[in-house]
Design a protein that fits this description.
Elements (H helix, E strand, L loop, with lengths): L1 H25 L5 E8 L4 E8 L8 E11 L9 E6 L3 E10 L7 E10 L13 E8 L6 E4 L25 E4 L10 E4 L4 E2 L16 E8 L4 E8 L8 E11 L9 E6 L4 E10 L7 E10 L13 E8 L6 E4 L21 E4 L10 E4 L4 E2 L7 E5 L6 E2 L4 E2 L2 H4 L16 E2 L6 H4 L7 E11 L6 E10 L4 E2 L8 E2 L6 E9 L2 E5 L4 E3 L4 E4 L14 E3 L2 E3 L10 E3 L6 H10 L13 E2 L11 E2 L8 H9 L12 E3 L4
Parallel strand pairs: 1-10, 12-21, 23-34, 26-28
Antiparallel strand pairs: 1-2, 2-7, 3-6, 3-8, 3-9, 4-7, 5-6, 8-11, 12-13, 13-18, 14-17, 14-19, 14-20, 15-18, 16-17, 19-22, 23-30, 24-25, 27-28, 27-31, 28-29, 31-32, 31-33, 35-36, 37-40, 38-39
Length: 634
């Protein structure tokens, strides 16, 4: 029995050796060339193989493709993601050498091939096929090129293969039908480097008379797609009959799917509708095709003028932002080769009697680039402020007396205006009952002001300030405000309180998706104007004593704040004796020290604080009691 097993094994080994010898005998000269290209529609790099002859037997063993990509660092680094291999093969990034001394301007990316099926390529002489594709998670840095085995400084010759990193970056391919298994059947490169940067022409390169050209664009401002047309000449007579515009966008299903909404014609007496939608046809199952057609109630509505582009309609997408939306190319799109798999007629079309017969197609092509949507980012903001009236110099925290006395109102005291009011206007019980350093002190107001004209308020944010100075949302208690509806960008930030003077940043700050922190409690934070805050030991505070809720603090003279305090005390409902030292209980602007009481005379009165600020102001060199502290805002 043992002898039979040995004989069987010997026969198998002999068969395999004969098979190898047969393969060598049948092998012929040939090999493959490589090409890399950029796919604008899908925003992918695609790598192709082209065989010079048909190998026999066609058994692909190993392969390596090395690309040169522009060198970048940090978030600007070229980063390979989403590698998609030809069925039956597996390509992976085996080596990433960053800026070697041989050429520090580029990184070298080597992709290795493992055959899941050695016959997967099924090569035919001269027929190019895609080997794999991938995306770059980083920014577009420039052209991506294939390494040239013969001339690249990083690729050392086989006799001395030691480069600076001791790697072996050569392009390589092995197929038994083109030689022995250890031959390199790579022949060279085809094509030009793949550039992700496409020139987006604002007008057609060479517009022809009696024709019209299409363009699609994306507007970040209104989050809509806009379709434009460019006439090569003025039609006579100008009578537009029909039109079709077909767009292609990345395919998705369910909630992610592209969903056209709110179509708006920009030309009176012209109506545009979505007339056809084909999802992922077999000609290109990565995209969906959407066709729009027009219905004119006035054939002369467009009033075409040669060389004058005009927007014809726009629309929104209620689905996800999936990537670039492109116009169908009548000449080259596989789905426009009729009959297509869906029996539809997706070609772009326009008919105007002044450019030809009624059955002529006056559409000539597209210009511009694919329209790439940008998911709107929500700017985020964090801010801190300390109020002098509530500040305790011994603890470096503010007192939460209004909260402990149940005087803190449940709704914001700041009125809505004609600019967006952000932040929660009502105080949640969970926030109100918080104790310790995060206990709420009072309502405050933030304003985001225009970067070029800071007198122009773009949005207001209402919140509550905690004992440690953090300003938080009144409902959630979160110290990061999501400024929904506000565009990211540069803004001046000002902070306000009902009986303190406001303060504003000295310069516009960048408010973006990463929360910006503006800490008005730090002396180092630069503010607009001079002496905009009162500087205490280790803290910067808003000036207290603005009991009239205007833009100044005045102790004596016309419209002074002391009289406001006295008036509230004398006119209080319970002060029947009209005593000046009556204690008015409640949430009042005249409560300068924020202890829940308005007092004009006697201990803990509210006049001493504002009078002391006036007398000790850094600019009041004569200690005049009628000096005016003015709010430092434009």
């Amino acid at each position: 029995m043992l002898i039979n097993l040995r004989q069987t094994a010997l026969h198998c080994l002999t068969f395999l050796l004969l098979l190898q010898l047969s393969a060598v005998a049948l092998a012929s000269d040939g090999g493959v060339t490589y090409r890399v290209a950029w796919d604008t529609t899908h925003e992918r790099y695609r790598v192709y193989l082209r065989p010079s002859s048909t190998p026999s037997p066609d058994l692909s063993l190993t392969g390596q493709i090395t690309l040169r990509v522009p060198h970048g660092t940090g978030e600007h680094r070229f980063s390979v993601t989403d590698i998609q291999s030809k069925s039956g093969t597996s390509w992976s990034l085996g080596s990433h050498v960053i800026a070697p001394p041989e050429d520090p301007s580029v990184d070298y990316l080597s992709f290795a091939f493992i055959p899941l099926d050695v016959k997967a390529f099924a090569f035919k002489a001269g027929e190019e096929q895609e080997a794999f594709s991938f995306k770059n998670a980083g920014p577009c840095l420039g052209a991506v090129a294939l390494l040239d085995n013969a001339t690249d400084p990083f690729n050392q010759p086989p006799t001395n293969p030691k480069n600076s990193t001791n790697t072996n970056p050569s392009n390589q391919f092995a197929n038994t039908g083109w030689g022995s298994s250890d031959d390199n059947d790579y022949l060279g490169n085809d094509g030009t480097p793949a550039s992700c940067a496409t020139e987006c022409l604002s007008t057609p390169a060479a517009p022809l008379a009696n024709n019209v050209y299409y363009r699609v664009d994306w507007s970040k401002a209104d989050q809509r797609y806009h379709v434009y047309m460019y006439p090569g000449s003025t039609p006579t007579p100008d009578m537009s009959l029909s039109s079709q515009v077909t767009l292609k966008m990345p395919h998705a299903s369910g909630a992610e799917s592209f969903k056209v909404s709110a179509i708006k014609s920009t030309v009176n007496n012209i109506t545009w509708t979505e007339s056809s939608r084909i999802n992922a046809p077999k000609e290109d199952n990565d995209v969906d095709y959407l066709s729009f057609t027009m219905t004119p109630s006035d054939a002369k509505a467009f009033q075409w003028q040669a060389g004058r582009e005009r927007e014809v309609f726009s629309f929104a997408n209620d689905g996800a932002c999936l990537g670039p939306v492109a116009l169908l190319d009548n000449a080259n799109d596989p789905f426009n080769a009729l009959p297509n798999s869906m029996g539809t007629n997706p070609g772009n079309q326009f008919a105007n009697l002044g450019w030809g017969a009624a059955d002529s197609n006056n559409y000539a092509g597209n210009y511009g680039c694919a329209a790439t949507c940008i998911t709107p980012t929500t700017p985020k903001l964090q801010a801190r402020v300390l109020l002098q009236g509530a500040f305790d110099s011994s603890t470096k925290l503010m007192r939460d007396t209004l909260r402990t006395k149940n005087q803190l109102p449940s709704t914001s005291p700041y009125d809505a205006t004609d600019v967006p009011m952000l932040g929660s206007p009502t105080l949640a019980n969970a926030v109100l009952t918080t104790t310790g350093n995060n206990a709420p002190v009072d309502w405050v107001l933030l304003e985001l002001r225009d970067a070029t004209n800071p007198t122009l308020v773009k949005a207001r944010v209402t919140g509550v300030v905690q004992r440690d100075g953090d300003i938080v949302d009144a409902q959630t208690g979160e110290n990061t405000f999501e400024l929904k509806g506000l565009q990211t960008g540069n803004y001046y930030l000002s902070a306000h309180h009902r009986n303190h003077l406001g303060v504003m940043s000295a310069t516009a700050v960048n408010v973006g998706e990463t929360p910006v922190v503006v800490d008005f409690s730090q002396e180092a934070t630069r503010t607009y104007g001079e002496h905009a805050r009162v500087i205490a030991t280790g803290a910067a505070l808003l000036w207290a004593g603005n009991t009239s809720s205007d833009e100044r603090i005045i102790a004596q003279g016309p419209t002074n704040d002391s009289s406001t305090v006295l008036s509230d005390v004398l006119l209080a409902a319970g002060n029947s004796a009209l005593t000046t030292n009556y204690k008015l209980n409640g949430y009042q602007a005249t409560d300068a020290n924020m202890d829940g009481l308005t007092i004009f005379a006697g201990p803990s009165n509210d006049v001493d604080l504002l009078l002391g600020n006036v007398l000790l102001h850094p600019v009041n060199s004569t200690t005049s009691a009628n000096y005016i502290i003015r709010q430092q805002l434009p």
